[in-house]
């Protein structure tokens, strides 16, 4: 009960904080001295200091198995024989602020739907194959991030670091935590930018529960997963419809497939 109450308080407290900041943001922007150190931009026109954005994100990737345990004598599985895939869909609200011309800080609060499939092999001594362990979950995702930016005439480079944690519900006791680091380099002008980059993901996913095996009944399990391939390639583009409205799109490929679309209002 305490855990559920804490999760609910975190969820609604986070949304309330975002709502208050969003309401007060325009007034703060009118009086803001941000970003600090405007002279560091060397005369470049800077974006408005505050932003509220909505991002839609989807991702599919293979997982590696760190640990798999069954509460049943005789079940021994070679991790190398197990294939695991994962897919997620997120909708996130993001608040950001330019603290310096080269540093943007942001917070994330949103929803996530995910599924993980663990393809279990046949185990000697069991009367039936274990089949596929399908884990479906949904919940809230929250996180913090920083974006470091630099550049010159017509080009830029950036480094984005994000930490996220998920409060999940589903058939099992699930937890997902991730660190994401994305360096990018690209071209820019007064209308927008295009870039190429690479993303590193350190994902730790755990699930505990029980599955029903024919002739055996419920069997408890504990599984810990991680991203099989940490790096992938990103390409993206952004445009400024006006000084206040910005759009961006980004896709990832190679070791992990991802797609992202976002709109941000600045003030």
List the helices and strands and how they pair.
Elements: H1 2-31, E1 50-70, E2 83-100, E3 103-119, E4 132-152, E5 155-170, E6 173-188, E7 192-213, E8 217-227, E9 231-240, E10 245-253, E11 256-266
Antiparallel strand pairs: 1-2, 1-8, 1-11, 2-3, 3-4, 4-5, 5-6, 6-7, 7-8, 7-9, 9-10, 10-11
Describe this structure in words.
- It is a single chain.
- With 267 residues, this protein is mainly β.
- It has a single domain (2-266), classed as Lipocalin, CATH 2.40.128.
- 11% of the residues lie in helices and 64% in strands.
- The chain has 1 helix and 11 strands, in the order αβββββββββββ.
- Strands 1, 2, 3, 4, 5, 6, 7, 8, 9, 10 and 11 form an 11-stranded antiparallel sheet that branches.
- The radius of gyration is 22 Å and the shape is elongated.
Name some characteristics of this structure.
single chain, 267 residues, mainly beta, Lipocalin, eleven-stranded antiparallel beta sheet, 11 strands, disordered N terminus
* Domain tally: 1
Please report the total strand number as a whole number: 11
What is the highest CATH level, the class? Answer: Mainly Beta
Low-confidence stretches: 1-10
The helix count comes to 1
- The average pLDDT is 87
Structural class: mainly beta
What's the main sheet like? 11 strands, antiparallel
Report the β-strand fraction as a percent range: over 45%
Beginning-to-end CA distance, first to last residue: 41 Å
């Amino acid at each position: 009960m305490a855990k559920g109450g804490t999760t609910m308080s975190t969820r609604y407290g986070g949304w309330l904080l975002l709502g208050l900041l969003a309401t007060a943001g325009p007034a703060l922007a009118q009086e803001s001295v941000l970003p600090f150190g405007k002279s560091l931009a060397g005369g470049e026109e800077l974006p408005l200091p505050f932003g509220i954005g909505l991002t839609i994100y989807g991702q599919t990737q293979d997982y590696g198995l760190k640990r798999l345990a069954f509460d049943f004598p005789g079940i021994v599985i070679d991790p190398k024989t197990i294939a695991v895939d994962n897919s997620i869909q997120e909708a996130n609200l993001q608040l950001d602020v330019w603290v310096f011309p080269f540093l943007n800080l942001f917070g994330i609060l949103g929803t996530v739907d995910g599924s993980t499939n663990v393809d279990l092999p046949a185990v000697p001594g069991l009367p039936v194959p274990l089949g596929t362990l399908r884990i479906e979950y949904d919940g809230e995702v929250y996180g913090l991030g920083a974006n470091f930016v630099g550049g010159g005439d017509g080009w830029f480079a950036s480094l984005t670091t994000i930490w996220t944690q998920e409060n999940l519900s589903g058939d099992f006791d699930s937890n997902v935590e991730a660190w994401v680091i994305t360096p990018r380099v690209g071209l820019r002008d007064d209308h927008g930018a295009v870039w190429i980059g690479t993303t590193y993901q350190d994902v730790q996913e755990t699930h505990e529960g029980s599955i029903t095996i024919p002739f055996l009944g419920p069997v408890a399990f504990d599984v810990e997963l991680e991203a099989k391939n940490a790096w992938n390639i990103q390409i993206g583009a952004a445009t400024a419809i006006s000084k206040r409205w910005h759009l961006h799109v980004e896709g990832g490929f190679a070791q992990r497939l991802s797609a992202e679309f976002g709109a941000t209002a600045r003030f």
